[in-house]
Amino acid sequence: MTDSPSTQASGQTASQAASQPASQAAGEPASQAAAQAASQTASLADLDAGTLAAGYANGSLTPTDVLEDVIARIELRDPELNAMYLFDADQVRADAAASTARWAAGSPLSTYDGVPVTVKENIARAGQPKPSGTAIPNPPISPGNAPTTDRLLEAGAVIVGSTTMPDWGMLSSGVSSLHGITRNGLDPALTSGGSSAGAGTAAAAGYGPLHVGTDIGGSIRLPGSWQGLTALKPSEGLIPLDVPYDGRAAGPLTRTAADAIRLMSIIAKPDERDYLTRPYCEMEWSTEPLAPNGMRVALQLEAGSGLPVEAETLAAVQRAAELFAEAGAIVEPLEPFVGADVLDGLVDFWRSRSYADYEVLSEAERACVLPFIAEWCLAGADFSAAQTIRNRNRIDEMAQLTRAATAGYDLILSPVTPVAAFAAEDPMPITDPLQTMGHISFTAPYNMSGQPAVSVGAGVQADGRTIGLQIASQIGTDPMLLRVAAWFESVRG
Asked: What is its EC number (predicted)?
């Protein structure tokens, strides 16, 4: 279900290879031993954003040295992992040098001037292509930056590059007709998760501390769960988008909650380009962990639709709930609140939306779309106008059900997804294109309700695959939610 064998083997197209350093363009995969050594050896690329900022301020570190280490990590690991789409090492060096000069002159643009960051390829960067993971020729060139890109540049962050995504962002994996396969940074045999595939892998593999993805049904939290990250789908409107849409959000994928908080302090600011921007955009972003003592916490172990939860995942979430109770939280069971008819209606509306994009393509362009995606969206052609409206109304129904079920709770605990990471080559955990979304039953409700939800590592299965705990809260309480996630990181063992 991917490109030609040559594209899949190297994970690159010819145009990508031409724009990358020779060591990466050659497509020689790093050995697993080298990859493990890179991940086990402490280096500047592995430092968190707080440590980097402190080092820049006291002169013990420079952006030039840090970004050189990040470049080396990418050149070592990305031929195998394939997380980067737009990566220009010379431009990264130039941006790092400019940041180093600002620090030397005592005039940094912000506390995080010179900190490395990546952005998902559907987050616009002026003058850069925006193919959304498809191999369709002549992708649109972004005329300007997305709000997130502008906030990062205003802070002096060094954008290392754009990260990969699957076709149109409609897969929970790193399988793409343009990029080939993006692999898991912890175990390359496994999926990266998606659709923020490259962002998750870049975070797990240590391509610097800060990474921005997008999420419309779980696309930040699924890579987070399957790569052991802290990954936040923020409140609706908290991070402005240049292309706002029901349920869509941008947010951080990081190795710690503290770094997610730091990234939010940069990008969670109002922007008039997003009509959904909320007045709560100005928030205080403290990295101090917050124990849930006295909080009312719901524990949801069944979604009411989709795949059954694997036993080891269920046990990990139950153990997490015990830690909350031991810390003084009032933990109560929460029954399923979204039925299969609602989830199926949402997915069918997404099919219709994707079919609208597919229908206008030429035959040659359609041939470039990943066959799995083509088959998935073609089903959207069969719905009448009336059924399409009914399916669209499921978004509102899901939002209402979620808000009603979670009202009165400070936090809601659940699995991120019922299943652990699957093979990197598979486009979805369910490989039937007509039955694909049974793994988003815990994540999608919070996209539609607009509530924040974070994936934080809760353990590993016996075979080493990571398990994510989803913690959700009420809309506009993102700083509290991330501080609780930081607390959980400190007690989970």
From this structure: 3.5.1.4
Separation between Cα atoms, residue 478 and residue 476, nearest integer Å: 6
Q: Residues 454, 221: contact at Cβ < 8 Å?
A: yes
Handedness of CA 40, 44, 46, 51 (dihedral sign): positive
Q: What per-residue confidence (pLDDT) applies to 279?
A: 72
Per the document, the length of the chain is 493
Classify domain 296-343+368-491 by CATH architecture: Alpha-Beta Complex (3.90)
Q: CA nearest 91: which of 146, 162, 190?
A: 162
Same fold, 5-281 and 296-343+368-491: yes
Domain boundaries, the chain: 5-281, 296-343+368-491
Architecture of the domain whose range is 5-281 = Alpha-Beta Complex (3.90)
* Cβ atoms within 10 Å of 167's Cβ, excluding its own: 29
- Give the number of other CB atoms < 10 A from CB of residue 444: 28
Residues 6+ apart with CB under 8 A from 14: none
Find the largest Cα–Cα distance for the chain.
64
pLDDT for residue 215 is more than 50: yes
Q: Which amino acid is at 62?
A: T
* Cα–Cα dist 124/151, whole Å: 12
In the numeric block, which tokens belong to residue 103?
A: 């620090």
User: pLDDT, tens digit, for every residue of 294-342?
Assistant: 999 999 999 999 999 999 999 999 999 999 999 999 999 999 999 999 9
- Give the Å distances, CA to CA, from 446 to 83, 215, 218, 234, 399: 27, 10, 9, 9, 7
Coil, helix or strand at residue 37: helix
DSSP character at residue 309: P
